[in-house]
Amino acid sequence: MEKQESRIHPDKMTLYSLFAACPLYLEDLLEEEVLHWGGKIQKRTTGGLSFTATLETIYRFCIHTRVAGHLLLQLSEFDLTEDLESVRKEALHFPWDTIMLPEATFSCRASAKGRGNINQQLASLKLKDGIADYWREKTGSRPDVDRQNPDIKVQVHIQDSQKGQMYLDLSGETLSNRGYRIKASSAALRENTAAGLLLRSGWKKISQEKCVFLDPMCGSGTLLVEAAIIAGDLPANLYRSHYGFMNWKSHNQDLWEEITDQAEQEWKKGIETLPRITGYDNDKNAIASAIDNIKRAGLDKYIHVEKRALEDLALTEAQMAAPGGLVVTNPPYGVRIGEKNALYSLYRSLGDQTRSPQFKGWNMSVISNDISLLGAIGLRQSRENKIMNGALSCAIYHYELFGSEQKKKGPEKVQLENELHISEEGTQFLNRLIKRKKHLGKWLKRENVSCYRLYDADLPNFNFAIDVYENKWIHIQEYKPPVFIDMDKAEIRTKEAIKILKDLFSLQHNQIFLKQRRRQRGQDQYRPLGSQGERYLIQEWGQRIWVNFTDYLDTGLFLDHRNIRKYLLENSKGKSVLNLFSYTCTASLMAASGGASKVVSVDSSKTYLAWGRDNFSLNKISDTHHSFEQSDSFDWLRASKDYFDVIFLDPPTFSNSKSRASVFDIQNDHAALIHLSMKRLKKDGLLIFSNNFKQFELKEELLAEYNISEETKWTVSEDFLKKKSGHRCWFIRIK
């Protein structure tokens, strides 16, 4: 095994390789923080991201981050052996004298992700032994292990049972421990989860408009303190007493003191701009804890708390005089206070109280792990987010608390028109988007769909296809304008469209992705546009899927096939399934998740099959009974001797792939392809045939030979009905 050189140097301009972790679903907020403080993103993953940064950026990030949990410094990367002895050898040969003093105490831990079954306890032990053996060889003695309060924390992370990465924990205790909260209620949010909830609620922008903040069930006050930190743009971790980097040999105390001095000045300046922040709770012990925590945070002059029952909720004159306000709260849910049946009245009361005219013009965000409890609030949410509260998967429902007069005016439209100063054509585009959002809203909620087609060139001057992913990212495909269209005007409309979408969905610029779409020839739609390799996590029908908005024209998920994938999920149990032209294997994933006994995915692209394997691994599906075959589908069908219960056939319109001797044309060649596929179908099996060629006509010879029914009416879902921009689909069986 080749030993990598250490990248650790005391020079403060050195670029370090780092990994920052955060609660699931807050990765985009973490990315904003990393970029803001000067980091350069290398790779995005579920629950964190890799980046490079200088020592100064590391310090500024640690003292300011609101959503990060841990910050890890990558020390090395190595190939893993099955017996994990490679972990010990990597630690043995690493120059620990560049990291720690010989007398420093240390602790070790291991983590694993992806394929395989790793003994994490054994990996941790091997790591500890390697460090101990290094110091024993170098000094004749070994440092002590301290599991409670070590000077140095070292971690080994194992990916897919193949690669190991060794890290130094620069954060020490989780960065969510700000230092102000010693007393916490039994159901308190973690500080970084609370910050994520507030950022999702839009509090950062709302607070800048001199609006006020209210938590009617404040518990130990975590949301109140985090609301102040965000509103004042305060350094969140200023008053932490210790960080993991303080015992790192590359730690620069002078630079650290300079940055903390600057942070103290930021704090003093920021608290003078704080809006009115108020918290109530009916539990006197919770209020006592909140008062202590707020004092410890140095914010007792700026946050008011008092004991008050929810049914007595009423705004003060000062709150009513403000231009608006935000209610954010973390009510109890059955997990923490017993039976949830007793909680329905509490949630109903929250809805009743905030429905009062005194809250006209306010907004509200509520977190819960139980959708039925959120439903008891009785208000229609305007949007929602997912978030993790520790190990609990929760939802955040956002509400616009406006009266009937505002409903008639359409506050979303009026507000955006005033803020954006958009053109007359832009106003038409905005109106179309708002109308479309409203039209799709009930369907999205009923079907639990989070990735959908919002708009498809409905207006001639806004010639785009716009897809929304998880309400966190927007993928715009701009159709190439005709030659008679002024390119400068087209560019202006594109920029206007992006700004409208950005504000309509409350997104940052880096959450919107623009590509130009032309009629594709051959494999163009599958060829890379760039090489950023950035992937994002979405969910469909309960399964997690990787998408890529930057490197290819398509994202890795054909949204119009959503219902076909659901059919495979629900009808594959115990069946053998073949997926031809499998792309990123999302249809295969649904079949496997639905209990298929065997799934074979065939595609000519090694890249997309690897993507498919990653989708399987992401959902913890072993490939023991499933295979990924790199081959031209025609060649594979001719060579195969296997038979299948279900075959999914979704070929491209054209293909001049290098793996084929001739060009494939769907209209000319589909009959031959279907005949080959039917030879691999069991007697009672089903071939699902789909394609997106708008002028496609099924050949008569197929209708004569097989039982064929067109199923397009139900396989195309609501978001693709209007312009018929999706596919056509047939179910084909042996007569």
From TrEMBL:
Keyword Transport in record: no
Catalytic activity: guanosine(2069) in 23S rRNA + S-adenosyl-L-methionine = N(2)-methylguanosine(2069) in 23S rRNA + S-adenosyl-L-homocysteine + H(+); guanosine(2445) in 23S rRNA + S-adenosyl-L-methionine = N(2)-methylguanosine(2445) in 23S rRNA + S-adenosyl-L-homocysteine + H(+)
A Pfam entry, by short name: Methyltrans_SAM
Task performed by this protein: Specifically methylates the guanine in position 2445 (m2G2445) and the guanine in position 2069 (m7G2069) of 23S rRNA.
Enzyme Commission number(s) from the entry: 2.1.1.173, 2.1.1.264
Molecular-function GO term, any one: 23S rRNA (guanine(2445)-N(2))-methyltransferase activity
Family: Belongs to the methyltransferase superfamily. RlmKL family.
Alphabetized UniProt keyword annotations: Cytoplasm, Methyltransferase, RNA-binding, rRNA processing, S-adenosyl-L-methionine, Transferase
Ranges for domain THUMP: 57-170
Compartment(s) of residence: Cytoplasm
Transmembrane segments: none
PANTHER family, per the entry: RIBOSOMAL RNA LARGE SUBUNIT METHYLTRANSFERASE K/L, RIBOSOMAL RNA LARGE SUBUNIT METHYLTRANSFERASE K_L
UniProt name for this protein: Ribosomal RNA large subunit methyltransferase K/L
Family matches, as InterPro entries: 23SrRNA_methyltr_KL (IPR017244), DNA_methylase_N6_adenine_CS (IPR002052), RlmKL-like_Mtase (IPR000241), RlmL_1st (IPR054170), SAM-dep_methyl-trfase (IPR019614), SAM-dependent_MTases_sf (IPR029063), THUMP_dom (IPR004114)
CDD domains reported in the protein's UniProt record: AdoMet_MTases, THUMP_AdoMetMT
